[in-house]
Write a structure and sequence with these properties.
Blueprint lengths: L26 E6 L4 E9 L4 H14 L3 E11 L1 H13 L4 E4 L3 H9 L6 E4 L25
Helix pairs in contact: 1-2
Length: 146
């Protein structure tokens, strides 16, 4: 239990800001691209973001495209994050790509042997394929301009 002022225990360093918000709260974002799906993880990937991870995995699976996970900004990961990566890797029709994982994530995927199920890349291959080529304003089916 982290400190709350009532127990006398000190708060965990770097967890709560002066405004009371979680400084390293985890977040999960899914970018549906034209040819692949990118999932961006940031902050603490733990049980608090578990519902978001489940939803992101379901979206990626439903899309049926290759999946890449950008873990560059992960500051902490527990078994929840490891299970998420294992689920994605085992259910994907192509090899999961893990982009720029920090040391804490590298350690976990090596210890759990999940690194056998995915490819780790140390540079971002770019988001060109993760961002649709055409903007919503493009009218490719309409009449040609004269």
């Amino acid at each position: 239990m982290s400190g709350d002022g009532n127990t006398g225990a000190p708060p965990r360093a770097g967890v709560t800001t002066a405004g009371g918000e979680d400084a390293d709260a985890g977040s999960v974002h899914v970018i549906m691209g034209r040819t692949k799906t990118r999932i961006v993880l940031t902050g603490e990937i733990d049980a608090l973001v578990s519902p978001d991870l489940v939803e992101a995995a379901a979206e990626a699976e439903d899309a049926g495209r290759p999946v890449e996970v950008d873990a560059h900004h992960v500051t902490f990961m527990d078994s929840t994050g490891v299970a998420f990566l294992a689920r994605l890797a085992s259910r994907s029709t192509t090899r999961l790509v893990l982009i720029r994982p920090p040391d804490v994530v590298r350690f976990l995927i090596e210890v759990t042997s999940i690194n056998d199920l995915l490819d780790v890349v140390d540079s971002d291959p770019g988001v060109d394929d993760s961002v649709p080529e055409e903007s919503p304003d493009d009218d490719t089916d309409g009449p040609a301009a004269a």
